[in-house]
Automatic annotation (TrEMBL):
Residue segments, region Disordered: 634-701, 773-795
Catalytic-site annotation from UniProt: 206, 244, 418
InterPro entries: Galactose-bd-like_sf, Kexin/furin, P_dom, Peptidase_S8/S53_dom, Peptidase_S8/S53_dom_sf, Peptidase_S8_Asp-AS, Peptidase_S8_His-AS, Peptidase_S8_Ser-AS
Name of the protein described by the UniProt record: P/Homo B domain-containing protein
Gene Ontology CC entries for this record: Golgi membrane; trans-Golgi network
Organism: Powellomyces hirtus
Gene Ontology MF annotations: serine-type endopeptidase activity
Keyword terms: Calcium, Glycoprotein, Hydrolase, Membrane, Protease, Serine protease, Signal, Transmembrane, Transmembrane helix, Zymogen
Compartment(s): Membrane
Organism lineage: Eukaryota, Fungi, Fungi incertae sedis, Chytridiomycota, Chytridiomycota incertae sedis
Family (UniProt): Belongs to the peptidase S8 family. Furin subfamily.
Leader sequence segment: 1-22
Amino acid sequence: MILSVGNCLSALLALTGTLVCAARLGDKPTTLNDHGNFHYLAVQLAPFDKAAEATPSAWEERARAVGDSLGYHVVGRVGELPDYYMFATEKWTTSAGVGPLEVRSEAHLEKERRLHEREIATAPYVVSAKAQIPTIRLHKRGPIPQNERGRPFRLDELRKELGIHDPGFGQQWHLVNTVIIGNDLNVTGVWKQGITGHNATVCFVDDGLDYNNPDLAENFYAEGSYDYNVHVKTPEPKLPEDRHGTRCAGEVAAVRNDVCGVGVAYNAKVSGVRILGGALTEADEAAAINYDYQNNHIYSCSWGPSDDGRSMEAPPQIVTDAVYNGIANGRGGLGSIFVFASGNGAASNDHCNADGYTNSIYTITVGALDRSNTHPVYSEACSAVMIVMYSSSGQKADAIYTTDWPGNGCTDGHGGTSAAAPLASGVYALVLQIRPDLTWRDMQHLTVENAVPVDLTDDGWEKTAVGRPFNNKYGYGKLDAYKLVEAAKRFQHVRPQTHIVSPVAESNKEIPHDFERLDSIISITEEDIKTANMSRIEHITVHVTIEHDSRGDIEMFLVSPHGIVSQLSTFRPRDSDPNGYQNWTLMTVKHWGEDPVGDWKFQVTDRIHPSRKGTLKYWWMTVWGETAPPTVTRPTIPPVSALLPAPNTSTSSASEPSETDADLQPPSLPPLPTSVVSKTTTLARPTATGEPPASETTVPVPTASRASGAYALVFGAAVLGAAGGGFYYIRRKRAADSSVEQDYEFEMLNDDEVDAAFDDEEDERSEMRLVNENRGPIPDRFVLSSMDEEEDEQP
Ligand SMILES: *[C@@H]1O[C@H](CO)[C@@H](O)[C@H](O)[C@H]1NC(C)=O
Ligand SMILES: *[C@@H]1O[C@H](CO)[C@@H](O)[C@H](O)[C@H]1NC(C)=O
Ligand SMILES: *[C@@H]1O[C@H](CO)[C@@H](O)[C@H](O)[C@H]1NC(C)=O
Ligand SMILES: *[C@@H]1O[C@H](CO)[C@@H](O)[C@H](O)[C@H]1NC(C)=O
Ligand SMILES: *[C@@H]1O[C@H](CO)[C@@H](O)[C@H](O)[C@H]1NC(C)=O
């Protein structure tokens, strides 16, 4: 050891000529957050040659070998990430030996950190090293609107039947709305079946949880709780403003008793992982979202990067890795359910595709819906919004009534997307009581297929290629608890995930002004589909690199082969960042269920400030989806005539599906858009390499991204395959041919709201396509709002 320290010394002196020996074993930190006296570094270790060798003890041994050889304390593994370890070293080592900490400048400490990082990162068996500095990067999503007087209710019968004596139940309009009938979660029919969240645990990653509160105590799950701000086991609120987490938790699991109101899943367990009560390191954030992840099933996250309409922030790598670790290994391999609030920055023109937490494919992004089923002005929209849930409105005071802190009380003032996301978490807890076997992707499919569109006169709605209405403000609509739970009862697992990484389309063209747009095309071929063994799309991520004088000026769209337009970004007047988009990922769920074969058009426009210019450097996309059914390779698609049922029978068979029939008989297919049909001619396209014959020049995907993609693919399939093995189910009606996914999707569209709104019968799909083509590249955006800015600044 002494020898190693000597090595370190000479190496660093040679390297820098001054300053420090990076590390010298002195005292070990006695706590995990002694940032005053220690540098902490999160170190990612290199993978083992053979996967079988990568046991926890082998990782630890590797960490210790690296730490010992360099003279660092190995504090322990970072959360549940097998390959990340926290190293620590005292801050007192200067070139002169001991130096008083007080006299050392922040610049000096920063230099030390860089040296430590460099020293560790260049050591054998190390991938990366990053100094951990607690900062405040994450913000709560809850503006607190004005309160309104409680209204009288007559709910006596329901109270009696369900044994609900909570005095505030009558004010919980989001559970039972007696003023505007139907504008609630429709949950009472679920409770009546005894489905109240038993056996499900929702973890509130937030600013604390008042577990002594009589409205929460009985449902509190202590083992799943921790405080990462001060590193103690108990997550109680510790600062005067720490009421947010308790309010969110009450929405899910407020106990049915004589205090306050009830939660959506009032017999679910809740835990609290405190991260918003002050500064936090990236490593602690990563550990937080995997905390006790075999027993915490749903992570409810009502926070994210600042909603100021300027920020564009993705989670740091270690957090991204933790999210992936959660979906791959959490809940016994079924995957943690991550629920994220979309953000409250819409009034500042913020957009949830500028937030790397909400635009992740692994999180369910929840926007807000107000009591009159309209869009609250604060709720951030984007193509990654999957659903909306009830919350406060922007103007008047009809917020959410829930448990509060301090003082064992209640509040009727909880709002923002902060209050919307927990309601989704609560509904998912109900689902998990009866279907604990659902995977993270099953939950997303269930959500997309059963969300109920609202406010259909809003002009942001557009039917997707499979006929399901989607709106960037509302996603696929709101969750109706009864409908979702009924669907969950008979939900059949989706097949494993796969994905296609497209080639990179290089453009290097200037982005035009004056209502013109730059188009760039990437083709997805039959060959790509076969290689990836994909049947139907789930998410699409688009990765862009754009240089621009003022990043917020740019608007981006993705147009599918069927003419469905995803608006990927909107004008953000406050975002004048001069660095453009550097490999930024945008996500859309709007193409869910669509057949991906054909030309995907990426469009960039800039309608603002002709003097501020930019260039689309390059982009590529990743198409995520479900694997094809086993034993069936995409056969030749039958002639159109064989697929098309009589127009007037297709409508009725779609609205009255018979389960047994559908399972036993070949699918009756909806009318196919002509562009789908025409793809039969592309079957023989000679594109073995997957390089599209697009009008744009294409260059191969950087090796790294291809390689890591393949790794993720294999890994994901293995994990999910293993998890699904016990109850794997082959959907017989899907076994016919490649178009079955459309049958499936179509069948799911069995709901009154949709029919009522889009009652144009057949051919409306082609009409839709026509509309897209005619309306040009720029679908309606959110109205600029003059709403005061305090809204998004509030805690
Ligand atoms: C709401 O729940 C009731 C049962 O309590 C059910 O009959 C009704 O269909 C549900 N509403 C929707 C839109 O599913
Ligand atoms: C909770 O889980 C246990 C063990 O799986 C099961 O036996 C029990 O029926 C579940 N309880 C409810 C109310 O679903
Ligand atoms: C495609 O995926 C299915 C699982 O959905 C698997 O059974 C089948 O073997 C895969 N086919 C190919 C060609 O990889
Ligand atoms: C459509 O329905 C009408 C009456 O409902 C019927 O006369 C007609 O034959 C049907 N058309 C087809 C193609 O089945
Ligand atoms: C760009 O982002 C993707 C996805 O996040 C990543 O896989 C890739 O390595 C990044 N490429 C570069 C050059 O940073």
